[in-house]
Amino acid sequence: MRTLFRLTRAAAALAAVWLLAAAPAVTADDAKSGWKNLFNGKNLNGWVQYGGQAKYRAEYGQIVGTAMPNTTNSFLCTKRHYADFVLELEFKVDPNLNSGVQVRSHVYDEEKTVEWKGKTIKIDAGRVHGYQVEIDPDVKRDRLWTGGIYDEGRRAWLVDLKDNEPARKAFKAEEWNAFHIECQGDSIKTWLNGVPAADLKDSMTPSGFIGLQVHAVGKKEEPLEVRFRNLRIKELK
């Protein structure tokens, strides 16, 4: 009987944790000022996967991405496109997994090209491309450019953090971290745990979807994970 009681109490505690974790990121007061939940906390309705075969699931109010071997970069993306907005979210990533948050991004069924500084850049069919707010947890390399802006599938690094030591030090390994991202006109700005990280002026892509990346891991079979929670967005007029 005591064992049953302990199990029942443990189940109740787990349910309470789940309900707390699944609580929406947007309160009634937040909603009045224009904030909306980007994730319903229960399932992946409103999202679509592109690219590789990483596994995504909704769990305890979080979106969890798990790396898979022998596949390319994977992206779980909003079905809606957004132009000018403020995006806030929290993430926790395995120290051996690279990740990122796509903003104003695209994918096409046919090959595309873009012109930039006299160069022609080819974008393969099915290739997710666009601005990525980097999640770079590799403390072994001592780079830690989390919050920098990488142009996925196009021009590579646009704003790294090699000269921004406060932002590099703001990253908390194997803990929850917070992004604040502002996209308005040709401006994209990022903050990591309240510390200014990147400030970019670029007009190549004025709108697009938001995506959560699980980077390719080669042949590694270890189930490396990145978790996202409290995703909310405020569109700017």
How is this structure best described in words?
This protein has helices at 2-21, 28-32, 165-170; strands at 35-37, 47-51, 55-59, 62-66, 74-78, 85-93, 99-106, 112-116, 119-123, 129-135, 149-152, 156-159, 177-184, 187-192, 195-201, 209-214, 225-235. It is mainly beta and 237 residues long. Strands 1, 3, 4, 6, 13, 14, 15 and 17 form an eight-stranded antiparallel sheet that branches. It has a seven-stranded antiparallel sheet with strand order 2-5-16-7-10-11-12, with no helix packed on it. Strands 8-9 form a two-stranded antiparallel ribbon. It is globular. The chain starts with a helix and ends with a strand.
Short précis:
With 237 residues, the chain is mostly beta strands. 13% of the residues lie in helices and 43% in strands.
The low-pLDDT segments are 12-20
The value of Rg in angstroms is 19 Å
Helicity, in percent? Answer: 10-25%
Secondary-structure element series: HHEEEEEEEEEEEEHEEEEE
Helix tally? 3
Shape: globular
- The termini sit apart by 60 Å
| Biggest beta sheet summary | 8 strands, antiparallel
Tell me the structural class.
Answer: mainly beta
Approximate strand percentage = 35-45%
Total count of strands: 17
* Overall mean confidence score, pLDDT: 91
Give the SSE map.
Elements: H1 2-21, H2 28-32, E1 35-37, E2 47-51, E3 55-59, E4 62-66, E5 74-78, E6 85-93, E7 99-106, E8 112-116, E9 119-123, E10 129-135, E11 149-152, E12 156-159, H3 165-170, E13 177-184, E14 187-192, E15 195-201, E16 209-214, E17 225-235
Antiparallel strand pairs: 1-17, 2-5, 3-4, 4-17, 5-16, 6-13, 6-17, 7-10, 7-16, 8-9, 10-11, 11-12, 13-14, 14-15
